[in-house]
Design a protein that fits this description.
Elements lengths: L1 E6 L5 H12 L2 E4 H11 L2 H11 L6 H12 L8 E4 L5 H13 L6 E6 L2 H9 L1 E4 L5 E3 L18 E2 L6 H24 L3 E5 L4 H12 L3
Parallel strand pairs: 1-3, 1-4, 2-3, 4-8
Antiparallel strand pairs: 5-6, 5-7
Helix pairs in contact: 1-8, 2-3, 2-4, 3-4, 4-5, 6-7
């Protein structure tokens, strides 16, 4: 299976991608990770990406695509993969389609995990992070033993700016505007499958398994 996994902040996309990768023996290709790895390895395309990042610029799509090309060619990706974090725009999706055609591949499904804004706000705004060791808690789902104090190191917990309600809602608005055309593009190709991200992690996972079982 070759899958693109989409989903906004707080829908649990990373968790689902990891579980699917493990159960179905699919390479989990998170574009942020492979970009950092290419830079760390000092590959030609990694150095090219670093030259943009060092100047504070976004890495151009053609450089990201080249890094993905290299990753697709690795042995573990040949039996299938989950692409996480790319594409984000229609031009990126078109570039991905072109790359896969050149490599004699095609996507089996594009799964969009969609959760309501209120659910996402509840999930993210409840997070608290340790200032010292960066351990993350949730005031409802996984609270510390002592309010405001990290269990691991005794550090003080705080709410990151990204986890405040106003910021979360702005992030969701940006994501919706950015990905709306992308979802339309994949809907037109007949490959888009939407799964609700509102239920529990386990229920969402079972929903995804039920739809990819038809692929």
């Amino acid at each position: 299976m070759r899958i693109v996994l989409l989903g906004g902040p707080g829908v649990g996309k990373g968790t689902q991608a990891q579980r699917l990768s493990e159960e179905y023996k699919l390479a989990h290709i998170a574009t942020g990770d492979i970009l950092r790895q290419a830079i760390k390895d000092g590959t030609e395309v990694g150095l090219k990406a670093k030259s943009y990042m060092d100047k504070g610029f976004l890495v151009p799509d053609d450089v990201v695509i080249e890094i993905i090309r290299v990753r697709f060619a690795q042995p573990d990706a040949k039996s299938g993969f989950i692409l996480d974090g790319f594409p984000r725009t229609v031009p990126q999706a078109q570039a991905l389609d072109k790359l896969m055609a050149e490599m004699d591949m095609s996507l089996d499904a594009v799964i969009n995990i969609k959760a309501s804004a209120d659910v996402v706000v509840q999930r993210l705004s409840g997070r608290r992070t340790c200032r010292d060791c960066q351990t993350v808690y949730h005031i409802l789902n996984s609270p510390p033993k002592e309010d405001g104090i990290c269990d691991r190191c005794g550090g003080k917990l705080y709410q990151r700016e990204d986890d405040k309600e106003d910021t979360i809602r702005k992030r969701l608005d940006v994501y919706e505007k950015q990905t709306s055309p992308l979802l339309g593009y994949y809907h037109g190709s007949g490959k888009l499958i939407e799964v609700s991200g509102n239920p529990s992690i386990e229920e969402v996972y079972e929903s995804i398994k039920s739809v990819i079982g038809d692929q």
